[in-house]
Amino acid sequence: MDNSKRTVVVTGFGPFGEHTVNASWVAVQELKKLGLGSEVDLQVYEVPVEYQTVQSLVPSLWKQYHPLLVVHVGVSGMATTVTLEKCGRNSGYKGLDNSSFCPDSQCCIVGGPDCIDSVIDMESVCKRVTASGLGVAVTVSKDAGRYLCDFTYYTSLYLSHGRSAFIHVPPLGKPYSGEDLGRALKAIVQEILELRDHAGEKLHCQHHFH
Fold first, then answer.
1. Mean pLDDT of 167-181
2. Does the active-site annotation cover 149?
């Protein structure tokens, strides 16, 4: 077993519109305080709400860290739960970003598939986190909203062949605090890593002699 630390990159978004404090970045900073244990090197990034920045930043995170996992976190004004997104969509990006820009093609990757699913079994992660009695409601969704969240997720899924996750959080105080959201992120990321390890064991079990 390789003892080098496993790197996990978690991103939150900066302010936009009425979200002058973005709950996603608050939650990610709380996660950073909690950490993911001594085995995991956790890197966090605040992502500006700009399509063009996302297009350059997301590939650079994958290149720089070769992470085991990248988890993007965003806020949704409509969410009342912590929501695990199953897939990212390529087209339909008409909303203007903080630079009043939107892609001419209204696409993430011209010619890319319409939809890319995460290889992570979000239903399992949701069930396991819910069963752990966290005190924060977790649900699963198939629509990340066709704005910067969805755009970032699709871009990351495309680059990583599905090895990314996206989590939507509600605005602060509706109903959860930043600390609550940080705890929820920690539980979710740990479940994803555990599921990933089990999947890996299945692949390698023929090499282990008990």
1. 98
2. yes
123 included as an active-site residue? no
Domain range summary for the chain, segments of one domain joined by +: 6-207
Q: Please tell me whether the overall predicted TM-score, pTM, comes out greater than 0.85 for this model.
A: yes
CA angle 86, 193, 70 (to 5 degrees): 60
Of the candidates 87, 108, 126, 149, the residue annotated as catalytic is: 149
Q: Domain spanning 6-207: which superfamily? A: Peptidase C15, pyroglutamyl peptidase I-like (3.40.630.20)
- The structure tokens 């969240």 sit at 149
- Has residue 1 got a pLDDT over 80? no
Q: 60: burial class by Cβ within 10 Å (0-12, 13-18, 19+)?
A: exposed
Mean pLDDT over residues 132-141, rounded? 96
Q: Which of 85, 87, 108, 126 is catalytic?
A: 85
